[in-house]
Write a structure and sequence with these properties.
The protein has 209 residues and is α/β, with parallel strands linked by helices. It has seven helices and eleven strands. The longest helix is centred in the C-terminal third of the chain and has 16 residues.
């Protein structure tokens, strides 16, 4: 889009042409398990034009209500290994017995077509993306407290007590990395956190590079 600004000064006319970057932007969202990332992302996308969610691949089994191709691409370990060998991931990592990764081709294609793309990935993967794509904006979703995070994990009742304890240890390590991100949004009151996240997207869309 070309915007022409005409400034009349004495008898001179100056045309200032501002070329809007036709490409989309890459946003990377991370945060501890149970902090509410999926809820925030789903609501943000439902009320914001021109933004879409990248669907990661994983070798883990689907959880209740998860849909293949919407929540994740659920693949076998063998298929994931073939994609690693073919350099088809922007980033990937192994957690426990399972792999998670971001297919690079759809991310690049959507950005080239002008769509903003959101990646929901773990901290280590997010920092890898930053090294490969410095223009990406990293957003960390934090809980109001570790006590509240543990309460949410136990309330959703998808993990054993031992798994919750393990997730809490991972969360403590992730929180130490939050300052390496561009933005931190604390998800205490959902509507307030959503408003802050929407403001970040809006601000980046009018950033002058």
């Amino acid at each position: 889009m070309i915007l022409t600004i005409r400034c009349v000064c004495h008898n001179c006319v100056m045309d200032i042409l501002l070329q809007r970057n036709a490409k989309g932007r890459l946003f990377v969202i991370s945060g501890p398990s149970g902090v509410g990332k999926d809820t925030l992302i789903d609501r943000l996308i439902s009320q914001t034009d021109g933004i879409m969610r990248s669907v990661s691949a994983t070798t883990r089994s689907p959880r209740m209500n998860e849909v293949n191709g919407r929540d994740y691409h659920f693949v076998t370990h063998a298929a994931f290994a073939r994609d690693i060998a073919s350099n088809r991931f922007l980033e990937y990592e192994k957690y426990g017995e399972n792999y998670y990764g971001t297919p690079v081709e759809p991310v690049q294609a959507n950005i080239e077509q002008g769509s903003d793309v959101i990646l929901k990935i773990e901290v280590k993967g997010a920092l890898n993306v930053r090294r490969l794509m410095p223009e990406a904006r990293l957003i960390f979703i934090a809980p109001p407290s570790l006590t509240e995070l543990e309460r949410r994990l136990r309330l959703r009742d998808t993990d054993s007590a031992a798994a919750v304890t393990n997730r809490m240890e991972i969360a403590k390590a992730e929180l130490k990395q939050a300052m390496q991100y561009d933005y931190v949004v604390i998800n205490d009151v959902l509507d307030q956190a959503l408003a802050q996240l929407a403001c970040v997207i809006s601000a980046e869309r009018v950033r002058i590079k």
